[in-house]
Amino acid sequence: MVGLRELTASFVVPGPCGVAIRDRLKHLTPQDERVLRAVGAHQGALASRDLKTRCADGHDHSTDTWAARKRELTGVSSSRIAGAITKATHDQWALARRCQAAHIRNLDAGIRTLRHRLSLPLGERGTKRAAGGYRSKGEWFRKSRRLAALEDRHAAAVAEWQAGRVRVVRGGKRLLNTRHHLTQAQLTEDEWRQRWEAERWFLAADGESGKRFGNETIRVTPDGAMSIKLPVPLAHLANTRHGRYVLTARIAFAHRGAEWADRIEANRAVAYRIHIDVARGRWYLTTSWQRPVVKTIPLETARARGMIGVDTNADHFAAYRLDRHGNPIGGPRRFFYDLSGSAGHHDAQIRHALTRLINWAVRVGVAAIGIEDLDFTPEKTREKHGGRKRFRQLISGMPTGKLKARLVSMAAEQGLAIVAVDPAYTSMWGAQHWQKPLATSHRKMSRHDAAGIAIGRRALGHPVRRRTAPPPHDRSDRAGHRTVQAGPGTRGREGTRPPATDRPPGEPAPSGKRTRGTSASNTVRDAPSTHQRVHGPLTRTG
What we know:
six-stranded mixed sheet, 15 helices, 14% strand, alpha+beta
């Protein structure tokens, strides 16, 4: 069709490559907390110093400079702690570079949009593909000034990128800016200082296969006993041999505890991180490990038992179950969530909605869930949508990246595959072809429910549209049969089934039984007409 963009092929999303679980450190003594704070502050200072050195190196970084930094840190900590700090430094620097590149792309997109709109006559109408001209001279003038500002920011960002300079804040830029707005954050200066220092601590250790219980720096035994290898300057705080400090807390992971125990008993690598929730005064231990790369199932296997199509919206998932031929089964299902409030509330709401969705998918027996491969990165600029501030806030508030990652991780535990499809035209075509036909007095179909059907059909490899329209009312089947999708390859799926007498000689009937041929008529009145054709029922599945 002219004017439509080419759709990308559907694919099975690869499964998760790692696992992370968390448990609370309960019944810590005051001495335990003093040791944890001292170790965190000491290693946090080392991490800040190392990050400063890495940022100063820029493009001059090499394996030699990395080794020199690690040797320097080893003298005031240990070789394993130095390795963990330098690795965390490189990860943080690489993340800053990716964010810097994304910022440059965003500025470039805004500049292109502004230049295009400024080049158009005032009041010229836009299209679905591109915005039109500005409405007045005043708006044109303000946007020309904004263009100059964006071009200046773009030039500065590109210069920093080429020079290898990045801007990194250990502890987080948001918490840093909170220092200037303590009244709005309802914090005192001492409370903010405690949070700031806690965020800049470094209490983490990477695992190492072959070592005792998978980690030499932070060691947790199968019975839950936890000990820490202290850095050299703090070795005097040890309460056991070899400069180790044993905590009084006992660890018992309620979630995936058996899997974690199997790993540490086999001395396989496990990483640990200790952190504190300053507001609640609670300490936590997070453990993580990598999973071997598992080959995703073929797309045809994922489609074998049907599909659940899911349309992602600002406040709910609209899901619909389809069989392998693309027939909708049952009614629409909606899984609501609320994205207002804090980030923790967002995560909990998304997690609960996904849990209900996955449990329903397991209950109905499908093998895969179809979801749109959403990416709103080019849609969030105010240059593209102008004054549509609420729309920009809407798409910016949808955590599409986190949602897909969490869905893939949670679905993998239930043996479900995730099929990503091109999101183009799913809402429009779904409403056009499915919303009205499936709406009844007892079933209310929304545009989002119809989009779920479109997504599921695209994930199954079918076109979004329903079957061809039924014949007019002057035909013998009276506008029937063709509203149901038959299976691909089914005989006569796009038309009426020919009579049994049209089969080649010797071919058995579909049921395996012989059918009686047309008998000769004894009267002119009963003779069959050569101009009429008997129409049988349409094959239907699902």
